[in-house]
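TL;DR need C-alpha cells for one chain.
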Amino acid sequence: MSQDPYHILPIPALCRGERTLLSSWIEGTRRGSLRICAILIILGCGTYGFTIGYRNGWEMAAWVALKLPAIIFLTLFVNGLLNGMIGLILGSGIGFRQSLQFLLTGFAIMSVIVGALSPVTFFATLNMPDPGAENSLAWHGLNLLLHTAIIAFAGTLAHCRLLQYVRDFADSRGTGTLTFCAWLAGNLFVGAQVSWNLRPFFISPGLEVEFLRPDPFDGSFYEAVFRAFRNITPL
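>> reply
TL;DR here they are.
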C-alpha cells in the first residue's frame, strides 16, 4: 500500500503550489487537511508574531505569538459564511463548504510565507533602536508599516495562488475572478480591523505592555496606518 506523499510533509508541495495537493484540499477529498492548515497557521503566524512583539520584550513577543494566529481564525470565522454568500450572490456556483476551504487553504499558504520571512523580520527587530530611544514615535510608525506591508503582501500572494482554482470551480471564468476579488477585499478589510480590536501588537511610546487595550473599539486600523505615515517623516 503506497503512502500518501503529502500526508506527513505537505509544506514543500504547498510552497510549490502543486495542483494535486491544493485541489484535494479544496475539494475536501484529502483527510486531515483541516488539521494541517490549522497547524501551519499556528506555527507560521505564531513564529512571525513572536518577531513582531520581541521589540518590546519576551512578554510582548509571547502575547503577539498567540494573537496573530487568533486573528486568522477570527477572520476565518467572520468571513466563512460571508464568502459563501458572496460566491452564491455573484453566481459563481461556489458553495459555503468550498469557500471556507478556499479561505483556510489561502491562510495556510500565507502562514508559510510569513513564517519563512520570520528570520528576516527578527533581525530587523534586533537592529531597530530601543522603544525609548530618540525618534521612538517615528520608529514605531515605521515598524507598523513594515509589518503591515509584509502581511498584506503575503495574504495577497497566497490568495493569488488560488485564483486559478476559484476560476476552475466557478461556473465561468469571469464570475470566478469577480468572486476572488470580493473575497480578497473582504479578507483584507476584516483581518485589518480584527487586528486593531486585538491590539497591541506594536507598543506605542509611553504605553505599557498588556494583552489587550481597555478600549478595543476606539478608532480603526486605517487611522493607525495614517498616523504611522505621518510619524515617519522625522526619519
